[in-house]
Amino acid sequence: MGRSRDNRRRAAAEAVVEAVEGGLAELIPDPDRARAWSLLIDGAPQSHVDLDDPAHLSFEYQRRIGHVIDLAAPPGKPVQAVHLGGGALTLARYTAATRPRSTQQVVERDTALVQLVRRELPLDPGARIRVRSADAREGLAKVPDGWADLIVADVFSGARTPAHLTSTEFLDEVRRALRTGGVYTANLADGPPLAHLRAQIATAAARFAELALIADPAVLRGKRFGNAILVASDSPLPLAELTRRAASDPHPARLEHGARLVDFTGGATPVTDTSAVASPAPPPSVFR
Asked: What is the phi/psi pair of residue 86, to 5°?
């Protein structure tokens, strides 16, 4: 008990708190890892980074995206990746650590947050990571046609995905920037009755031939609010290995695809720019 109290005291003493464009950012040191930090925005957890071990992914949704990154190309092969939403640059650091010599672009509109992260959690100088301060869709529009092997979308404003990143027109830009056979993965968040998540699957199905969804079974059953990871491509996905990795995670998840995923949409229709709305706000209990 004494050690736990010391850890809390250390965290309180060493936390970095700073106003950024998206709200109040807090960098909280991890008491169990010497150079690891969690990023919170207005109290909502955003990222966790271990500067000594950037291949360590603490958040369950980031581990699930990590599985997608691992399987997007042969092990260790460099990729060209675009990250929409930066946070603490966790997934870009992970890609650089697990796929050395990868070339990556990160699009993060919150300039003040980027400056904070660069100052307090500096990138490895050898990592080929370029950070661009721009709106995610505007930044994506500047990516050359067919440039990306991998596009990762993890964009939240006030804990909600902005409406203009939920439409078929947005996915048209994703398709344009992806090479043939490239992989798109997105962090989606929803809770009962899962209307947003179902519509996002229908939207992706309108633009990609191959889809999978990875999430906690309780989220898929509409029992609680949580994250779901969309994986999409115009080529077959490594479903068996994704399923195995999701199931063997410390927080096991289920993978849905094919007819079961079509059934999951429940007749939802694709979202367009004219009908798009932001994802639902999480209930306050999610972050308690």
From this structure: -105, -45
Helix, strand, coil content of the chain in percent (nearest 5): 35, 25, 40
Please say whether the beta carbons of 59 and 149 come within 8 A.
no
Confidence of residue 13 (pLDDT cuts 50, 70, 90): very low
Encoded tokens for 133: 């301060």
Q: What distance in Å separates the CA atoms of residue 123 and residue 115, rounded to the nearest whole number?
A: 12
Give phi and psi for 265, each to the nearest 5.
Answer: -65, -25
**Confidence tier at 11 by pLDDT (50, 70, 90):** very low
201-251 pLDDT per residue, tens = 999 999 999 999 999 999 999 999 999 999 999 999 999 999 999 999 999
CB 22 within 8 A of CB 7: no
Cβ proximity of 39 and 46 under 8 Å: yes
Sign (positive or negative) of CA dihedral 188, 189, 191, 193: negative
Alpha-carbon Rg for the chain in angstroms: 18
Helix residue ranges per DSSP H, 164-286: 168-177, 195-205, 217-220, 239-248, 258-265
